[in-house]
User: Which sequence fits this backbone?
């Protein structure tokens, strides 16, 4: 991460604009024990109270870290029931990083956010169709499979 | 460099900044070597 990803200008600008960044050695207790850290890098998105909403383990290049962070911030908004904010972030991820490993999960959570915001099932069925078309081998296509029946 | 990241070194400071700036926290556990 130090050699490739963090020096990248787009990564740096994204983090500076959207997040407060903190680095902690993986053997720093009690924090590493609190977060069950056993391998590095472990990257976690937290809310302002320190509650975890998203994590990844292992190296990510710039083109994967930014969508992963967008996904994490979107999931934070989703879990705090700010669905319109979440949808906006998932839209941005899918517009700019549709080929990333975070994209299929963003399609899924965007649909669930739309459902939670509107109580209408159509977004879930649309997500199933999009996942089958664009990300058929992803686990999120499987997780959306029940929505084909809606 | 325009994109240089301002890393905090402890959680308390990061959480204080997060509340002040209205942002989430990005926590990186790294290998100290």
Assistant:
């Amino acid at each position: 991460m130090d050699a490739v990803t963090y020096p990248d200008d787009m990564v740096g600008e994204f983090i500076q604009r959207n997040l407060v960044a903190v680095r902690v050695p993986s053997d720093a207790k009690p924090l590493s024990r609190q977060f069950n850290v056993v391998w590095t890098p472990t990257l976690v998105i937290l809310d302002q109270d320190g509650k975890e909403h998203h994590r990844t383990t292992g190296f990510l290049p710039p083109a994967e870290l930014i969508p992963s962070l967008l996904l994490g911030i979107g999931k934070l908004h989703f879990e705090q029931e700010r669905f319109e904010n979440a949808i906006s972030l998932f839209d941005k991820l899918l517009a700019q990083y549709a080929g990333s490993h975070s994209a299929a999960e963003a399609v899924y959570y965007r649909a669930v956010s739309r459902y939670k915001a509107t109580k209408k099932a159509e977004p879930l069925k649309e997500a199933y169709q999009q996942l089958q078309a664009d990300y058929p081998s992803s686990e999120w296509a499987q997780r959306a499979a029940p929505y084909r029946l809606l | 460099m325009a994109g240089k990241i301002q890393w905090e070194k402890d959680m308390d400071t990061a959480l204080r900044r997060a509340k002040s700036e209205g942002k989430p926290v990005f926590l990186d556990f790294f290998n100290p070597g």
